[in-house]
Specification:
16 helices; four-stranded mixed sheet; eight-stranded mixed sheet; alpha/beta
Length: about 350
């Protein structure tokens, strides 16, 4: 397929390398071409995984968004949720009917981006899908080198609007064969997002050592029994919200990430994550995406959906309040919520119609 990969982070580099090596015609775009470094000339990424280290050729490396998305059947955008608004505005003049955008994960960015596209004048009939995690556990090891610890084997994916599900899932499955698991709609996909469940307890309950030590692995020494119990309680609230909205199992409980091979990455991925050492890093609590994406966007969204659905979410609300106090930012006002999206007064029937038919 012709695939555009957008963004400059860990997930985007992994996507460009993995999808190119699989034989797809990849156009790799980021808005700051200079940040590509030598890659803009060499058009290669050094990929490190269980097979070892090798160079992967990327067909197109560009800072020209029109060039990247022109004729692309699939647009993979593993950008942080807080970058989706800007990306949608940039994409608006360049999209065409039938294209599929994939947000791994999305945080209900499928709806947000569609609304921005429409407000910006785009009439392209596109589908935007989202899933619960990146398709890779991955970290950059420097300019032009990406390490993939493991790949997702199960990607629960919802599409906005759901009327495009068959087409969108067929396209995405060509890029991620045997991994895509359809869910009901984009909101169901958003409520599969693992980041707002994993990361807020880890960064908030480890705030002391994170600020004291130069490098701290929240997934190794930072994952203790008391934090796991908070994880379980928070995840139970997420699942309760899903059930109240009529979404069916499997709900991909976070316990499977730690205890079984049934979760999105399979094969006891938490052990591989810790063993890689790639997450032993410096974290700036105010600036890191765990706060700006998983708390300000994901956790705020979960709390607002719980309130809208009439489902108590005291652990989620408590963590959101603590994060606000720790950073001096009221995420109930500034974060991604149904209120901020203009959907808080939407009835359930209206929401179902919106998710099915789109804007």
């Amino acid at each position: 397929m012709k695939i555009a990969v957008l963004g400059g982070g860990n997930g985007s580099h992994a996507a460009a390398a993995d999808l190119s090596e699989a034989g797809h015609a990849v156009r790799f775009w980021r808005r700051d071409g200079a940040a590509f470094g030598p890659m803009i000339e060499t058009r290669t990424i050094a990929l490190r995984d269980f097979k070892g280290l090798r160079d992967v050729s990327i067909p197109v490396v560009t800072d020209d968004l029109a060039e990247a998305v022109r004729g692309a059947e699939l647009i993979v955008a593993p950008v942080p949720a807080f970058a989706q608004e800007d990306l949608a505005r940039r994409l608006a003049p360049h999209l065409s009917d039938g294209q599929v955008i994939y947000l791994p994960p999305g945080t209900f960015g499928s709806y947000l981006m569609t609304k921005i596209l429409r407000d910006a004048g785009s009439t392209a009939d596109v589908a935007i899908a989202e899933t619960g995690t990146l398709p890779w556990l991955t970290r950059k090891h420097g300019p032009g080198e990406i390490a993939i610890t493991t790949r997702a084997t199960r990607l629960p994916t919802g599409v906005f609007p759901a009327r495009h599900s068959n087409h969108a899932l067929a396209v995405i499955s060509q890029a991620f064969p045997d991994a895509i698991e359809p869910v009901e709609d984009a909101l169901s996909g958003a409520l599969m997002n693992a980041g707002p469940i994993i990361h807020p307890p880890l960064i908030l309950m480890n705030a002391g050592p994170i600020e004291h030590f130069d490098r701290w692995d929240i997934h190794n020494e930072g994952t203790q029994a008391s934090i796991r119990r908070v994880h379980s309680a928070l995840d139970a609230e997420r699942i309760a919200v899903r059930e109240a909205l009529g979404y069916g199992a499997p709900h991909f409980p976070l316990a499977d990430h730690y205890e079984t091979s049934n979760w999105m990455y399979g094969n006891l991925a938490h052990d591989k994550l810790v063993g890689s050492g790639d997450w032993h890093e410096h974290l700036d609590l105010k600036a890191h995406r765990y706060m700006l994406e998983d708390v300000a966007c994901g956790l705020a969204l979960l709390v607002s959906i719980g309130e809208w659905a009439g489902v108590p979410v005291p652990v989620a609300a408590g963590l959101l309040a603590i994060a606000g106090a720790a950073t001096g930012n009221d995420f109930r006002r500034s974060g991604r919520t149904l209120e901020g999206l203009g959907l808080s007064e939407t009835s359930r029937a209206e929401m179902q119609a919106l998710l099915r038919d789109g804007l």
